[in-house]
Structure formats: C-alpha cells, structure tokens
Amino acid sequence: MNPLDPRDELTAVNVVTEAGRMGPKEYDGVLLASFGGPEGQDDVIPFLRNVTRGRGIPDERLEEVSHHYRANGGISPINQQNRELKAALEAELAARGISLPVIWGNRNWDPYIPETLQNAYDAGHRRLLMITTSAYSSYSSCRQYREDIGIALTESGLDGKLEVDKVRQYFDHPGFVEPFIEGTAAGLADVQAQLAAAGTPDAPIHILFATHSIPTRDAEASGRSVDEPRHFAEDSAYVAQHLATGAEVMRRMESQSAQTATWSLVYQSRSGAPHVPWLEPDINDAIEELAAQGVKGVVIVPLGFVSDHMEVVWDLDTEALETCSNLGIAAKRVPTPGTHRKFVTGLVDLICERTARNNIKDRPALTQLGPWYDVCRPGCCANFRGEKPTIAGADTRVGMGHDPYPSERVAP
Question: Lowest-pLDDT range, 8-22, 123-137, 194-208, 327-341?
Fold first, then answer.
C-alpha cells in the first residue's frame, strides 16, 4: 500500500481545472466497481431481488425472468471476468512500478460496495480512484454507481473520512475502442469466409453494433446538464456516444484493412413494463429486417459491453445467433475488450490521468464528444426516482467523476 502524505489533507476537495476536469491527486488504492452476478442456482433469486430492490416485484415474476441464468447453471460469467480484470490491472500497475492495490466491489452481489468500502477504510485507505465496468453515459451506467458510493459512505459514517473519485467515461478512449476495431475486422473476414464457402462470396454483409437498451427518458437525460447545454445526436449522450464510437470503429477498420460494410446501432436486453418506451430497434427485429432486404451475413459487435457476461452470452450468443440461424444468415459475434492487452493498459492510463505520481497529462479521445468529464455536470443522467447522495458530480456534496447500462439484465 502506498499511504498518503499526512500533510495531504482529505478535506482538500476536488479541484476542477477546466470543463469538468479534475486535478491530479495522490490515491492509495483503485476501486474496480461492477454490477455483480449470481454464482450458483441458489443465488439467482436473491441476486434478482437486489437488482429490483424497491420495485415490489414478487419472486414468482423474478423466477419467470431468471431463465438465462438458470440455463447457465445459475452462474453469471461477470464475477470471474472481474477477478481476471482485477488481476490484469494489478499486473499492469506492478509492471509500471505503481504501488496501488486494486479493490473490487459490486452493486448487486458479493463483494458488495458498502462492505468493500468499509474494509478498505479499516485497512488504512483514505482516497480511492474508481473504475467501473461501463464505458458510456446514462443513469444506470454512471450516476447510479456514483449514488452507490455516496449512499454507502453516508450510511456507514465514512463520509468525510474516505474519499472516492471516479475516472471519466471511456467510451472513446483508444484502449476501449481498438479491441473492437480488431474484432470487427476479424468478424467481417469470418463472415466473408462463411459466405464464400456457401458459394455466395459477394452476398451483402451488415455490421450490427449492439448495446443495452434503456428507457428513452433515461436516454434523453444522459449527458444533459443544467449549466452547460450540449446537443447530441438523437438528443441523447448515450446514443450519440455509441454512434460516434461505432463510426470510429468503421473508419479505422476501413482505413486499416480496406474492408467495408453497411452498419447500424441496435439494442438488446430490454426489460421493464411493456408500456414504457425503450430505445429501439431490438437486435432480433433488426436481423429480420435485414434478411427481408437480402442481407446474407451479419457481424455482431457488442459495442456497449466491457466483457462477455450474461447479456452477451445469452442475448447475443444464444438469442441473436439463433435468429440468424433460423433466417439462414451467416453470423459472427466479435469479442468484448475483456482483458485485452490494449484495454487493460488503457484503463491504467486512465488511472494515471488522475494520479499525481506517474501522471499522464494527455487525455486521448477518438471522437469529438470526448474526452468526457472527470466530474459530472449538474443534473447529468438524472435519477427520476429521486435524488440521492452521489460522488464526483458538480451537483453533489460527496467527492466523485462519470458509467453502459448495467452489466447484467435488469428484470422487469
């Protein structure tokens, strides 16, 4: 552990230098925060209760929507993937000579964030820098994590004793985008090979960039600020960030490999009451429309996801690929960043943007939307269920910075 200089008072609050940028600090640990997931059949319903807490959904309804977990032994891959990402981050930090331990906490399953923060404080930590397993801006992928921390600090009595800041949303950071460029090029080559083997080498191929659907009201609130109005494609930072990142993936792939194809942004994992509007089109509906238009090959890029967790292995690898198979469409789902070398080094670069030691002043961003804020603007990604204590926002009283929709399905 790299203790803070005792002269570095915790009461020295966040200093925003420009457009939501936070000045570098001394940190004594990195908090890897994620959604969490069940690790056995007995965990499934308790986990779904956590996800839907406060919504009054009976266990009978939760059981109806648990099939994707049940079909996989009640185990979500996300926890093991977080263990692997934690180990990869620790190895990269050590390779750079950076003495920052990585602490892991989840929103909805063990290790829970409140206990993680208490254990960190008891171990002597006083200032943590948080990375979340979400790259884009929306309530559930950023502000809710900030609320999780703010509530945990307040309810545990650690507010003012333990400080937690957050790295910026990294949807257009090279470390997140470049693995998708590689994967999309390889996926397109794979589908071309499938079509050539079927005797239709010139058949049209379409690339589908897939992300978690969210309620349209949440989408419209994403990136919205009361003090710094910004205009986004489709009136949503969440949508605009995906479109900009998808366009950059296509631009770079075409320039590097001379491969090209049409593409579009689609959504998956919709949940909630049927009368509540969510972002569309659903990926399966889009595949059916493409088939009707004569498309014979599809590359599915899970652009909204950091790792191959349940929403990828079920909604894409099971349901979407089954739709392709039923329609006679050649298909390939490309990998998420996971523990790709470029992704891990990119996350450590994001850490170093914020640290006084080993500081990296450059803040790379591959789209015109970035680099995103270290400190969220007032009103950004509003919580329509009511305001709660948060961290890393210009409208908050507890210290923090800006995370795609939850890493797992939210049951209706």
Answer: 8-22
